[in-house]
Amino acid sequence: MQERYFYHCFPRRGGELPQAIEKGCQILTTIRDLGLVLMPEIIEWNQPSADGAPPRVFPVLQKRVCFTELNSDELPQHTEKFGQFALEFDTNTLRSLGAIPVFYIPQPTAKGDDGNALGVALLGIAMDANAIIQRLAYLD
């Protein structure tokens, strides 16, 4: 079995090759000077209600940099879409830097009978539990 690594590839969809190489070198220089940039992204999940009321909205601010787990044979195909430059890390190194795996929660569909609302319901329960714990800590 081939060993798997985590890759961060860039620049994504960079037009002509000379411009992509120039852009990739600029990104690499920025990473050298400032480190990996955690991009902020606001995600909103909508939990439908059973009685037809407006959905409960869960906004979450995420700061992240994306890595993809691949073996070296899979890297060439991955770079075609995500960029010719690739940084490679082993799992233990990324974990020691605080990286955690992501999980994806699908948005509920309009019909709502496909089970997608379950992920958003679990997210809501986790966020409610977190709010209660924070309030209890404040009271302590």
Task: Kindly describe this structure.
The structure is a single chain. The protein has about 140 residues and is of the alpha+beta class. The chain has one domain (about 5-140). It has helices at about 15-35, 75-80, 90-95, 115-140; strands at about 5-10, 40-45, 55-65, 70, 85-90. The protein starts with a strand and ends with a helix.
Low-confidence stretches: none
How many domains, in number, for the residues? 1
Computed Rg: 20 Å
Approximately how much helix is present in the residues?
A: 25-40%
Gross morphology is: extended
Briefly characterize the structure.
By secondary structure, the protein is an alpha+beta fold. Helix content is 39%, strand content 24%. The protein has one domain (4-139).
Fill in the keyword field for this structure:
two-stranded antiparallel sheet; 140 residues; 24% strand; alpha+beta; 5 strands; 39% helix; 3-stranded antiparallel β-sheet
SSE diagram, text form:
Blueprint: E1 4-10, H1 17-34, E2 39-47, E3 56-64, E4 68-71, H2 75-82, E5 85-89, H3 91-96, H4 117-139
Antiparallel strand pairs: 1-4, 1-5, 2-3
